[in-house]
Amino acid sequence: MATTNIDINNYCECLYSELSNIKDSLDAFLTQIKLMEGKDKGHFSTHTKHLNELIQNVEWKMEIFAKECPVDWGKFGKEAESSTSVPSLDNLKQKDYPSPGYAGG
Q1: What is the pTM for the complete model shown?
Q2: Half-sphere exposure of 102 toward its Cβ, with a 13 Å CA cutoff?
Q3: Nearest to 52 by CA among 24, 30, 22
Q4: Phi/psi zone of residue 100: left (φ > 0), alpha (ψ -120 to 50 degrees), beta?
Q5: Quick check: 33 and 47 in contact, CB under 8 A?
Q6: I need a surface site. Which of 32, 54, 91, 104 has the fewest CB within 10 A?
Q7: 27 pLDDT band (50/70/90 cuts)?
Q8: Dihedral sign (CA 66, 68, 74, 78)
């Protein structure tokens, strides 16, 4: 059995792009049907339900792949903050800690 190394980021981007293109094509068919007139519109208007179902299915799959595929954080690195505004535990004084057993209220 042959194995290949797959670039998972490239795979995910390509898959999402292809699904997006399919969704756009289905939307274009719906637009064409809406713009039709006469007998053709009556005939093809029965397809709108099925096209909408396909679009919803593709959108659902896009959501699944968006959650399953890793996010490439590298391209966001330039915009990310390098520091935080949350103080470390070393900088907190003893009085900043709640007393033992106190749950607030």
Answers
A1: 0.57
A2: 6
A3: 30
A4: beta
A5: yes
A6: 104
A7: very high
A8: positive
